[in-house]
Amino acid sequence: MSRQYVIRKILIMIPSLLGISLVLFTVLAMAPGDPFEELATNPAVPPEVRAALRAKFGLDDPVWTRYLHWLAAMLQGDWGFSFVSRMDVDKLILQRLPVTLIVIGSSQIIAILVALPVGVLAATRPYSLFDQVANTLAFVGFSLPTFFTGLLFILVFSIQLDWLPFVYRANIDATGWQFYWEHIKQSIMPVMVLGLFQGASLVRFVRSSVLDVIKLDYVTTARSKGIGERKVITKHVVRNALIPVVTLVALQLPIVFGGAIVTEQIFRVPGIGSLLISAMLANDTPVVMAVTFVIACLVVFFNLLADIIYGWLDPRISYR
Amino acid sequence: MASGVVLLLLIATVALGPFIWPVAINDIDFAAKLQGPSWAHPLGTDDLGQDLLARLIYGGRISLAVGLAAMVVAVVVGVVVGALAGMSAGWVDAALMWLTDLFLALPLLPLLLLLMYLFRDHFKRLFGVEGGAFILIVVVIGGLRWMQVARLVRAQFLSLREKEFVEAARALGASKLRLVVGHILPNALGPVIVAGTIDVAAAIIAESTLSFLGLGFPSDIPTWGSVLRDAKDYLDIAPHWALFPGAAIFLAVITINFMGDGLRDALDPRRVL
In this complex, is the C-beta atom of B239 within 8 Å of any C-beta atom belonging to chain A? Predict the structure, then answer.
């Protein structure tokens, strides 16, 4: 993989980030009502302070200058001050971000661990009983909305069986192994809910991708050389079939972040998703804007990562 | 096929339900609160003793209506953008496709939530409580789901506009609009129908998610999502309250998805294997 390819991909990322910031800003600028409504209704804030604040934040400037100011502030990490939590928004987000990334990352691993073997097995025996069962289960899997699976999991594993806690606690007063075990135990349900949902849609991608590859001539060649079926599948078919799957995983990421918001809300995981919802319910606009922007940036960044992995897996792409 | 029957049954229940089961959605009866299924309340009651069957029928009307209306918005926007991009080569095409890719990269749910959060009160003032929420949800969900349709339509247009029958029509002096509406579009509709079907299911999920998170319809209007939201704090004592709306969403979504899959096989035989 050439360095040029990576640099080109990074350069392509910039306009899309700008585009996203433009969309977000347009939404904010079009929104009715004043972001300082809170201050306007507060009798403790005199009108001159309000006017000074408006001037400081440039609310009376033309739209273009406001966009540039806003963008500059966002890029410098000056994301404002949370009215509700009484702290800087960037600190608040940095506090919450790791939990979300861990939950999303481990759920993606679960999804791939489930989807890969099932998809490959289903594709090697198309229209067999296994294929049909897997296909039906995949359909059920991505037709069940995450908020319902979450509640079902709570109902079965927390209430009926009493195996797992259904509220995520950030401060566990235990040490050593006990500490890690408690953390794993409370992460199982949110991770599984997200992972299984994601895995269900991945199964179908993996299956159709393997089916596309398995008919190619080089696979027949490998078979006719006398290589065992197992080796043909793992060494020849799967490696090439996975290349498009990488892109599909990346394309699914916006949905994954959506799912993370829902599961964090159900299990009260203290990540940026639940931060977003609580900020919305509390009318905390700076936090809402910043979290949306961060999620959008993360999606773009992971897309870039997928593009780079794609170029590494398939050198033909990076020399185009 | 079986899924089509189930879906029709569901639609019939939701459409005709209020005539067969004329119980008010907001009859409060504390004597009968949090009861499981019984003859008086076939799906049980919630914490205020309101009848769940009546509330779910009402919610189903909203959910299905939102799903269909949002799909129409998404398909109309998608067809217009895709047709414009497919017919006009050059920078218009490039710009529209850049826009489409940009929208595809946007995280859907956060943006949905953001739009609901910022515009909710405004729409409430403009169109009333229920109407405002309905219009806003439909426009927002539809407005963020047109990209797939636009790409499909553009791809179809690119290949169709070079076909002989289009050339023949052009040679006969058909105007550009006539070419698009009368000749190209009808032939491009197959994949659009499939995508539209699946969009209905996605819109139902999106609406339920919004209501579940408390940013969809106001909480006094029972939709499947908001009933589920109210039920989640009573999971241990009244599981039926959460199970029925969840099952309703699941049934609607899976039958529509199966229909979409069946339509894909029927309309596009190449894709079967």
Answer: yes
Q: How much is the pTM?
A: 0.82
In chain A, % of residues over pLDDT 90: 0
Which residues make beta-bridge pairs with B51? B45
Q: At CB < 8 A and 24+ separation, what contacts does A74-79 make?
A: A74/A21, A74/A293, A79/A286, A79/A289, A79/A290
For B236, phi then psi, to 5°, come to -75, -30
| Nearest residue, CB atoms, A155 vs list B235, B249, B257 | B235
| Residue B273 to residue A211, Cβ atoms within 8 A | yes
Which DSSP category does B104 fall into?
H
- B273 contacts A262? CB cut-off 8 A: no
- pLDDT, tens digit, 9 for 90 and up, residues A95-136: 888 888 888 888 888 988 888 889 888 888 888 888 888 888
Of A61 and A112, the one with more pLDDT: A112
User: Which backbone phi and psi does B51 adopt, to 5 degrees?
Assistant: -75, 125
CB B122 within 8 A of CB A33: yes
Nearest chain B Cα to A291, which residue?
B110
Using alpha carbons, select from B17, B22, B41 the residue that is nearest to residue B31.
Answer: B41
A294 contact B CB<8A:
no
pLDDT band at A58 (very low <50, low <70, confident <90, very high): low
Contacts of A147 in chain B (CB under 8 A): 208-209, 212, 225, 228
- The answer to whether the CB atoms of A257 and B201 lie below 8 A apart is no
Closest partner CB to B249 (pick from A32, A126, A145): A145
B67-85 confidence digits (pLDDT tens):
899 999 999 999 999 888 8
Task: Please give the share of chain B, as a percent, with pLDDT higher than 90.
Answer: 4
